[in-house]
Amino acid sequence: MKKIFIAALCVACTFVGLQARVWEPDILGDGYEMSYVDQVRDYSGPVRSTVIRKLSACGGNRGVLYVHGFNDYFFQKEMGDMFVDSYYNFYAVDLRKYGRSIMPGQKKFQVRDMNEYFADIDSAVACMKRDGIDEIILMGHSTGGLTTALYMNEKPDPSIKALILNSPFLDWNQSAFQEKLLIPAVDTFGGLFPDIAISQGDSRGYSESLLKRYGGEWEYNTDWKLEVSPDVDTGWIRAIDLAQGILQNDPHIRVPVLLMHSDRSVKEGDPSSVYGEADAVLDVADISRYGRRLGIMVTEITVNGGLHDLVLSRPEVRKALYAYMFGWLSRQGL
User: Fold this and answer.
1) Which of 20, 62, 212, 305 is 20 to 30 A (C-alpha) from 241?
2) 80, containing H or E segment
3) Helices then strands (H, E): number in the chain?
4) Quick check: 236 and 197 in contact, CB under 8 A?
5) How is residue 172 annotated by DSSP?
């Protein structure tokens, strides 16, 4: 009986492993593949994440794992190609309730605790390890930067050797009154009533600086990355604020960190032209203030003319950014 049980367990494990290795062509084409990962049900029902990859012929055991921000998903094909052409295997994850991972009936972008995303990152790391990758560079943008920094602060996988942060969301871009009084009040309320909607305004300046239809350079699915940032809820605000509090008060990331941000933020009253050469979402001074504290090996770079998502900036800005990024990785022995 014991032998039968062990044999059955081996078959089950083999089946799970095969399921995890089912890859299909991704919407980006050109060698990109994707695989769904079913995650444990949460307060809203079934959830899944999606791992996207493009392998480099010369990538060996090195790979990059990218985590997107709020109201976002992985569509930055140029960035992925740059890593692949520079001999890194490239992976990205669409987190639960984002992009490729959205399931019917789900509330997009919903989260109650930023630790919920750790399972999505763990699943992507497991995929990379199955592909023979044991030197991983974790990269996060905006809220993805907050998530990846928290992950590396709380429960880093030892295969992750460095962290790259692209305009990480380390503090609210709000008035002193809102940050000191209003948000803490929402935190308390959000623990009891997490579904109350909070408007983020109706600005289209950032999306119009990106999309081709408005004179920008990029095309993406505007059902997955909305042109106007959607309402959040009290539970989302509480989750963000608690994560920021941990990184602001008890940071101890032990791997090298590359902290990247624009040289300026868009301010109220700025002309529309500024949206194409500044961070229209976060306060770059806050990114610098809290980002430099994340660990003892933080390298900070200021990107002149950079957008909030630095890899979507003007071509000359991106060229300089990638040159520095790959130089930094080389200096880390990666």
Assistant:
1) 305
2) helix 77-85
3) 10, 11
4) no
5) -
SS3 content of the chain, % helix, strand, coil (to 5): 40, 20, 40
Question: Which residues, other chains included, contact 239 with Cβ-Cβ below 8 Å and sequence gap of 6+?
Answer: 111, 112, 113, 114
How many Å apart are CA 296 and CA 29, to the nearest integer?
Answer: 40
Q: Is the dihedral of CA 245, 251, 255, 256 positive or negative?
A: positive
As to burial, measured by CB atoms within 10 angstroms (0-12 exposed, 13-18 middle, 19+ buried), residue 215 is: exposed
Which distant-in-sequence residues (6+ apart) come within 8 Å of 275 by Cβ?
Answer: 205, 206, 208, 209, 266
- What are the two backbone dihedrals, phi and then psi, of residue 56, each rounded to the nearest 5 degrees? -100, 135
Q: Per residue in 94-135, pLDDT tens?
A: 999 999 999 999 999 999 999 999 999 999 999 999 999 999
DSSP state of 101: G
Q: Partners of 36 in the beta sheet?
A: 50
8 A C-beta contact, residue 300 and residue 259: yes
pTM for the whole structure: 0.93
> Token pair for residue 182?
């209003």
Please list, in sequence order, all residues whose beta carbon lies within 8 angstroms of the beta carbon of residue 288, skipping any fewer than 6 positions away: 259, 261, 300, 302
Distance CA 239, CA 244 (A): 9
User: What does the pLDDT read at residue 176?
Assistant: 74
User: ∠ CA 207-100-241 to the nearest 5 degrees?
Assistant: 65
d(C-alpha 262, C-alpha 283), whole Å: 9
